[in-house]
TrEMBL record:
InterPro entries: MpsC
Source organism of the structure: Desmospora profundinema
Organism phylogeny: Bacteria, Bacillati, Bacillota, Bacilli, Bacillales
Domain Na+-translocating membrane potential-generating system MpsC intervals: 6-114
Protein name: Uncharacterized protein YbcI
Top-level lineage group: Bacteria
Length: 124
């Protein structure tokens, strides 16, 4: 008999997988990851994503803009891998992907918009 995965289990699996992806792709993982499934969206909050050197750079406006640009480009180059990872973990196709980073708090937010209502599937 197959055990049905709960919403919490899927959220935990996504958090673990994203941390692993960060370590492999970016060379380091975030300090804390929290994932929330909300209808057809997956919201991921990653805290502690900046390295000590990047934190130092964010003390100037030019440095802050540079870090935002580089981090954005790094995530965009890996977006296909991220979409595939989410599809594998959820069984849902990713329609779109959005992200931003706060150079003040060192937090990145990622939103995956899915083609179907994953929350409804997991709570039925």
């Amino acid at each position: 008999m197959e055990t049905k995965r709960t919403k919490g289990m899927v959220e935990s699996d996504i958090s673990k997988a994203l941390t692993q992806w960060e370590k492999e792709y970016l060379g380091r993982g975030s300090v804390q990851v929290k994932t929330h499934i909300l209808q057809h969206m997956i919201l991921v909050s990653l805290k502690g994503v900046l390295s000590p050197a990047e934190k130092e750079l964010t003390k100037t406006e030019a440095g802050m803009l540079s870090i935002k640009k580089i981090r954005s480009e790094l995530i965009e180059t890996g977006s296909l891998q991220l979409k595939e990872l989410i599809s594998q973990l959820t069984g849902c196709e990713v329609e779109s992907f959005h992200t931003d980073i706060s150079t003040r708090t060192g937090e990145r937010m990622i939103v995956f918009v899915l083609m179907e209502n994953l929350e409804k599937q997991l709570t039925e």
